[in-house]
Amino acid sequence: MSAVSGGWRRYDNTLFPVFHERFEEKWGAGTAPFLDPSVYGEDQPRPRAQWINVDTGAAVAVVPVWEDDPEARSFAVFYLPPHGGIWVLRPPGLTGYIEAVANGTTATEHAIALRNDSFKKAVAHAEEFIYGT
Known about the structure:
Elements: E1 8-10, H1 17-27, E2 49-53, E3 59-65, E4 72-80, E5 87-89, E6 96-98, H2 109-131
Antiparallel strand pairs: 1-2, 2-3, 3-4, 4-5, 4-6
């Protein structure tokens, strides 16, 4: 299923708080630290991407997610329909990677390449959803 492509604009600033609010409304308090805009300081996981539909108020975000192990991450794509709720759009293929910097070690070229490749796959999936390409 594809979202309507008209009105979509890239928004590369602070993550919209509504992603965090709707996720925790659906799955419970404390379940989405990766969507909490207050934890996105300079040393927090990057990269991320975000789009908003200025016509409908819908939004899409690609963010790094983690559960128990902060080093084991993957990218997820989240869609906010204009009238409430949140959808998790599963990108095809692997989007997992190891955040080498999390344990104090320097990220290797391989780890950086894996993270960047995973991010590109997730962004491509988000853009396919948004623009239908």
